[in-house]
Every structure is written in structure tokens, then in C-alpha cells.
Write a structure and sequence with these properties.
The structure holds two protein chains of two kinds. Chain A is α+β, with helices and mostly antiparallel strands. Chain A has a single domain, classed as Translation Initiation Factor IF3 (2-Layer Sandwich). Chain A is about 25% helix and about 25% strand. Chain B is α/β, with parallel strands linked by helices. Chain B folds into two domains: about 230 residues, Type I PLP-dependent aspartate aminotransferase-like (Major domain) (Aspartate Aminotransferase, domain 2), CATH 3.40.640.10; about 120 residues, Aspartate Aminotransferase, domain 1, CATH 3.90.1150.10. The chains are: A alpha+beta, B alpha/beta.
Chain lengths: ~80, ~375
């Protein structure tokens, strides 16, 4: 899998309707599957994801890129694999 | 009056949620039972039984005032700690109309609800660091803004135990300080400088339904709710409960240093044990903290599952995770600290909690975590 230089996600995890901590669990499972430098997006409506994705990145020393919206308007959290 | 915790009460073993409510102190039980018969009458009337009730209520007020280093005429009993916060804060905000309230991001929801109820574009929220300690410089700067009428800062955080640097803040003259002392009253010395202070008796081993509101003489404060302008107890006073609250406060202060030192050591023990578990993060200040309380978050675990698993093993603990909240919102305290909000547990010790009890809790926690994480394949 190649790194998307524009920082666009190479993988989108649809956790839109999963309660926390499932979005973080899915992120932890998926991140080893992308290359260092690539970005994974987590879709999650659960309000806890807004705090728990950045907190997970801090604990796991991964880069939290920020929050945007999916094409369907669901909050989307972007994480770059940094190690 | 008992000044030592004595032998632990076997009926309370495993109850580790005293930051939600401390079991009734033996001194409070004694005072309550005696006063139920003697203090039932209306203390505002002029007959003999009313005078009896008045005497008990005055006694309760004098004891609470002495314990909080206040004058009796500065103390009112309210219907709850929440009621004391609402009256105390809104009474200041009303007197300082129409200014805003500067407050930390980790205040108790009763403070935040009061501010939402009396919304103002001049309200300012001040952030906290990773330990939950308010940014003092930002608090001082916000307090100096022209629209600011009041500063509200808790004495210590109710969820993570971090003590706030209340006495460090240099506030401009004329901006009163409201202190929510519910989490620390009876456990730590109070901050020295404040205009209005609120506390709650059931947090220190008194009965539920007794809030304490202290308004320093000379403070511009008027009751924000229907009633007289003065600091009278609102409504019909619960004389027996007020007396029991006073007896409990006096008793916990008499034993405070010994109990706090022991609890502090036991919490250090829990912090060390829990930190050694995989993917568990202890949150809150390790040193400048409440003696009896420790909070941690466990990665990949739902807070409600963890609370239920510990409950099945006989342990009652609290959680700030969204799935355990009526609002389904995660704890605003954990969020403001940048802490993990899921898998959160708050353990708070009773005055008679033992080393055996906390060690057994830590062992049970390790089992629960392994069990739940195995279920999710992580």
C-alpha cells in the first residue's frame, strides 16, 4: 500500500453506530495493517470517540491528525501511523 | 464521640464509592436519632418545643461554622450540596449583574448547570492541564476582563481528586470567589480566601439532604430564588439532619489527619498496582490530590462492563465513562484533561477501608480486565 502524500486516508473504518470503546478497538486492530506515514479514518457518532481517539494516539504514540466529516456527515477522526 | 475509625464495618466491605456518598458516620447516627425526637418542631415558633428545635439548629450552625472557620451568621443549611452551589453562585452572579462567571473546565455539573441556566456571553471557561489542574495564569487573566463579575473554582476535583490552586490565584479586588468545596470538606484544609463556599454533608459522612452555604460578611450576595434577601435557611429546616451533619463534620475533623494519611497511603498502593496492569492509565495529580480517591481508565474496555464485573465480585465503584452516565456523554472532566474517557473507574475509600480490601480490589480488577479484554479479542 502506498502512502498518500496528501494525507488522505488509505483506509476508512465504519464505526458510525458502534458504542465506545469499539471505534478505538477497531482502530487498534487496523493500524498495524497500514504503512508508517499512512492515515486511517475512523467514522464514529459516539461522542466519546472525539476524546478517546486522540487519547489513544497519545498513549500509543501515534499522530492524531484531526476531525472532519464523512461523505454521509458522520464525524470522522484521522490518525497517521507514526511507528 | 468516636475519634478513631475502629474495626471496619463488615457490611460495608467492598463499598468503594465514598466520593459519591460516604456511609453515615457513627457520630452522625447518634446525633440524628436523638434529634429526631427532640428537634421536630418549627424553630421559628416561640413555644417550648420550638425553642428546643431552635437550640439544636443553632448548635448545628455554630459547630459547622467553627469547623469551616466561619461565623455562625455566615452559615446557612440548604436542601442539598447542589442547592448550596446554585444559591451561592447565582446569588453572587445576581448581585454582580450583568457580568460573567470565570470558571474551570472541570467544575461539578451543578456549577455548569447554574451557569447554563443564567447564561451570559461574558462567562469564560478556563482549561486544565493533563492532571486536571486549572491554568492559574489564564484564570487570573480572565478574571481581569471587564465583563467578569465572579470567579468559580472548586477546592478539589470530585472525579480525579486533583487539588486546585485556589489560594495561588491573584484575583482583582471586587471580583468575589465562589468555592465549591464539596469534594474536600472534612478531608483537607479549606482554601483560605473565598467569598462564598458550598459543601454537602453526605460527602463527609453526614446525612443526605443537607447542603452548607457560607457567605462571608461584607460579600455582595442576594438570594437568587424566591424568598428573603438574607442568608436564612430556605424552607422548613431539617433540624435533626443539620445536627447530624454537624456532628459528623466535627468527628471527621477530629480524626482527619490520621484517616487522611492512611487513605493517602492506600491510594498510593492502588495507583501503583493499577499502573502495573497493561494499558491502564491513572489520571489526576499523584501528590496534590484528595486523600481517598483515585481514578483510572482502561483501554479497550467499556466502563459499564467494568463496573458490572467488579460489582459481581462485591465491589461498588463509580465511572465517568459515557455508557454509565444518564446523558450518554463522557465525563467533561476527563475530556478536558485529554484523558481516555472509556473504561474509566473511580475508586474512593471509606474512612475504615483497609489494605486487605484495596489489595483484593486490585486483584479483582486485574481479573475483570483480562476477562473483558479476552472477550473482545485484544
Amino acid at each position: 500500500m502506498s502512502t498518500d502524500g496528501a494525507g488522505r486516508p488509505v483506509l476508512e473504518l465504519d464505526c458510525a453506530d458502534l458504542p465506545c470503546p469499539r471505534p478505538v478497538i477497531e482502530l487498534a486492530r487496523a493500524l498495524p495493517g497500514v504503512a508508517v506515514g499512512e492515515v486511517v479514518a475512523v467514522l464514529a457518532r459516539d461522542p466519546a470517540a472525539r476524546y478517546d481517539v486522540p487519547a489513544w494516539c497519545r498513549m500509543r504514540e501515534q499522530e492524531y491528525v484531526g476531525e472532519d466529516r464523512s461523505a454521509t456527515g458522520v464525524p470522522r477522526y484521522l490518525v497517521r501511523r507514526s511507528s | 464521640m468516636s475519634t478513631s475509625p475502629g474495626a471496619p464495618d463488615p457490611a460495608l466491605q467492598g463499598y468503594l464509592d465514598s466520593a459519591s456518598t460516604e456511609p453515615l458516620h457513627p457520630a452522625a447516627r447518634q446525633a440524628l436519632l436523638a434529634a429526631l425526637d427532640r428537634g421536630f418542631a418549627d424553630p421559628r415558633r416561640l413555644h417550648g418545643r420550638a425553642r428546643d428545635a431552635r437550640l439544636l439548629l443553632d448548635n448545628a450552625r455554630a459547630v459547622v461554622a467553627e469547623c469551616l472557620d466561619a461565623r455562625p451568621d455566615e452559615v446557612a443549611f440548604t436542601a442539598s450540596g447542589t442547592d448550596a452551589v446554585h444559591r451561592g453562585l447565582l446569588g453572587l452572579a445576581r448581585a454582580g449583574n450583568p457580568g460573567g462567571v470565570v470558571h474551570s473546565a472541570v467544575e461539578h455539573s451543578s456549577v455548569l448547570h447554574a451557569l447554563a441556566w443564567r447564561d451570559s456571553p461574558a462567562h469564560r471557561q478556563v482549561g486544565v492541564d493533563r492532571a486536571g489542574r486549572v491554568d492559574v495564569a489564564a484564570l487570573e487573566a480572565a478574571a481581569r476582563e471587564p465583563g467578569t463579575a465572579v470567579v468559580a473554582l472548586q477546592s478539589a476535583n470530585h472525579e480525579v481528586g486533583t487539588v486546585q490552586p485556589v489560594d495561588e490565584a491573584e484575583l482583582p479586588a471586587g471580583v468575589p470567589l465562589f468555592v465549591d468545596a464539596a469534594a474536600s470538606a472534612g478531608r483537607l484544609p479549606l482554601p483560605r480566601r473565598w467569598s462564598v463556599l458550598a459543601a454537602s454533608a453526605h460527602k463527609w459522612g453526614g446525612p443526605a439532604g443537607v447542603g452548607v452555604l457560607v457567605v462571608r460578611r461584607g460579600t455582595r450576595w442576594t438570594t437568587p430564588f424566591p424568598g428573603d434577601d438574607g442568608l436564612d435557611d430556605p424552607g422548613f429546616p431539617n433540624v435533626p439532619a443539620a445536627l447530624a451533619a454537624a456532628a459528623a463534620l466535627q468527628a471527621v475533623l477530629a480524626e482527619r489527619e490520621e484517616v487522611a494519611a492512611r487513605q493517602h497511603r492506600l491510594v498510593d498502593r492502588v495507583r501503583a498496582a493499577v499502573s502495573s496492569l497493561p494499558d491502564v492509565e491513572v489520571v489526576g495529580d499523584p501528590v496534590a490530590r484528595l486523600p481517598h480517591l483515585v481514578t483510572f481508565s482502561c483501554l479497550y474496555v467499556a466502563g459499564d462492563e467494568l463496573v458490572a464485573a467488579l460489582d459481581r465480585r462485591g465491589y461498588g465503584v463509580a465511572s465517568g465513562s459515557a455508557c454509565t452516565a444518564s446523558t450518554l456523554e463522557p465525563s467533561h472532566v476527563l475530556a478536558a484533561m485529554g484523558a481516555l474517557t472509556h473504561g474509566n473507574v473511580r475508586v474512593s475509600l471509606r474512612r475504615d477501608s483497609t489494605e486487605e480490601e484495596v489489595d483484593a480490589l486490585c486483584a479483582a480488577l486485574a481479573d475483570c480486565l483480562a476477562e473483558i479484554r479476552a472477550g473482545s479479542g485484544l
